[in-house]
Amino acid sequence: MANRAPTFSLQRVTFLSVSLVLCVQVGWWINVQIRESGRLLHARAEALNASRAEAWQMDSLSVLNAIHANPDPSSRVGSVEGRFAALPSFEQRRAAIQQRFPHVAVLSRPLSPDDPALLDGAAFLSLRPEPMIELQDQRWHAVLRAATEGAFMVIAVLSGFVLLYRKLAEELDLKLRQRNFTSAVTHELKTPIASLRVWTETLFTRTLPEEQRARIHGLMERDLDRLNELVGNLLDVARAESGSLVLHQAPLELQPWLRGVCEAMDLRLGQGALGLKLEFDSKPLWVNADPKALGTVVENLLSNAFKYASEPRATTVTLDGDGDDVLIVVSDLGHGLSPKDLPRVFHRFFRVGDEMTRQVAGTGLGLFLVKEIVTRHGGEVRAASRGAGLGATFTVRLPRLAPPAEEPATEPADA
Ligand code: ADP
């Protein structure tokens, strides 16, 4: 529809912008989380380094205190390299360090170039690798969690947006169709009323030959039929929507009934105008149906086959059994439907194309009503088309009814 494009593109742009802003926000949030966890890791590594420095300090102080307590070098025994004999033994110092700083290892060789040597050169202080590995693991877990939470947030919010967008698009579409419907109904009411006024004035103000009067009567009847059909459809739609569409179902043999409805419709639309061909299964097919409502279904389908096809028309109505179902198929060789319109033709007020460019009168209620009535009969209706310009086929599937048992012939009473 021509006036739909700007609204929808505006919606799309808004939706895309919101999604983009959301993704940027979440990306930024993930980045912050990753940086935070990096900072935490760094701080913890610093703390570990600090504990190593503290261990070094503690050991150095113990060495210095021992030297201070025994200023005479000759009395210092048992030291490393035999210089500081009064110092605590190396094993005692190592035990003291490890008890206070479990993450610090006292090793004869450094693990990294930053590892400081003890004051007396007895060993090196290294950080054990396990806490760092654990910290790295924690960091990757934090990053993974942030990424998962971010992805979940994006998916959740975008799904919400998609639902909202769809709902909004549906509502806008319905509003637009309603607006189109109002102008279509106005047009559908005005045209036959204006034409009836002209014919009435002509009949009352002029003396016309009988033949012309009969022709005008015919035209007036057609206008009245048109008005009647429109009002009938409107009333049925209103009833269907409020749930008060009452069906009077009874066993119905389809062959004779369908033939009658099709022929009457052909006559109404102008004999032969439909190019009608009936292909009925020879076996009797029964359904449990309301003849009036089902008649509306067939009439609406035939009326569309007439409206949406150019002359010479070729309309085929097929009646067939299919297992437990009965199929009524109405197909034409008219304008057809594009794949994008097919699923929407049964929507209320839907009409293909733009109201301004649409040449054919209609309200977009006929197929909605067809679907409502068929569904209420426990059946389903489908539209198919090989594409625009290649005709359309509407298939009504109804649950089949076993033919009612024949009444036993009554024996003539004995004389
Ligand atoms: P209306 O005919 O009053 O517009 P309908 O509900 O009967 O409303 O049909 C909805 C729309 O589906 C029509 O406007 C038309 O565009 C399309 N349509 C229906 N039947 C046919 C058909 N046989 N061939 C092509 N298009 C069709």
Short description:
The chain is of the alpha+beta class. The chain has helices at residues 5-69, 90-100, 129-205, 210-242, 254-268, 291-307, 366-376; strands at residues 104-107, 124-127, 250-253, 276-280, 286-289, 315-322, 325-331, 380-385, 392-401. Among the domains are: 4-72 and 86-140; 250-399, 2-Layer Sandwich (Heat Shock Protein 90).
Q: Overview of this structure, please?
A:
- This protein is α+β, with helices and mostly antiparallel strands.
- Among the domains are: 4-72 and 86-140; 250-399, Histidine kinase-like ATPase, C-terminal domain (Heat Shock Protein 90, 2-Layer Sandwich), CATH 3.30.565.10.
- The protein is 55% helix and 13% strand.
- It contains seven helices and nine strands, in the order H-H-E-E-H-H-E-H-E-E-H-E-E-H-E-E.
- The strands form two sheets. Strands 3, 4, 5, 6, 7, 8 and 9 form a seven-stranded mixed sheet that branches. Strands 1-2 form a two-stranded antiparallel sheet.
- A hairpin with a 2-residue loop joins strand 6 and strand 7.
- Residues 1-6 and 77-82 have low confidence and may be disordered.
- The protein binds adenosine-5'-diphosphate.
- Adenosine-5'-diphosphate binds at residues 300, 304-305, 307-308, 332, 334-337, 345, 350-352, 362-368, 392.
